[in-house]
């Protein structure tokens, strides 16, 4: 549920705890599979089948983690790009606003006459 909410609302910092927990689970599952394959007798068909199935499940588990991690990286890159775009738009807007007022000088009229020096729009 944590991952679904984080992906739906595009909160990349809420994906990180899920990634850590999933990585720990994957490592523990792999160690359990390794222990199972060493301890149990692999001369019986049931044990061989379970060992092969858990090997497939561990591979799918690793693939799922890589998939979610790639989504996390893409989402964090998009967030950085959006932040840079907002910063650039804000900087350009403030530069545009500051240069239009400074073109005519600090006063709208000259000190000795009523002729305006403001630019004609």
TrEMBL record:
One of its GO terms (cellular component) is plasma membrane. Keywords: Membrane, Transmembrane, Transmembrane helix. Residues 99-121 are annotated as: Disordered. GO terms for biological process: establishment of glial blood-brain barrier; regulation of tube length, open tracheal system; septate junction assembly. It comes from the Eukaryota. The chain crosses the membrane at residues 18-39, 51-72. This is Uncharacterized protein. It comes from Cuerna arida.
